[in-house]
Amino acid sequence: MFHLCVITSIIPYTIVWAGKLNSIQEMLVFESISIIVNLFLLMVVFMRVGLLKGYLKTPTLNVILWFFVVLFSLNTIGNLFAKVSLETIVFTPLTFISALLALRLILEK
After folding, report:
1. Lowest CB count within 10 Å: 15, 42, 71, 88, which one?
2. Is the pLDDT of residue 87 over 90?
3. Nearest-CA neighbor of 16 among 97, 86, 95?
4. pTM to 2 decimals?
């Protein structure tokens, strides 16, 4: 929903991506990639918890989830240094919690 709000200009693109986007075209590329990555993560999570018939086995899903743990952890660090304080205040805890939740999925039997 957040990314759709950015694409539709409900949320200004100048306050996302650490305030480093320079144009609407750049925002559309970055936000489109974000939506695709989020949909992929959602599919992986649904497969891991058994809500979606998985074509990937648990070890493969766990490797993908480890990638997201690292991605969310790096994003948390990046959010700490964002130019926009809203990004630091709101999204630092959000990405940190996301990293912890992905880790929990990996460790869950």
Report:
1. 42
2. no
3. 86
4. 0.85
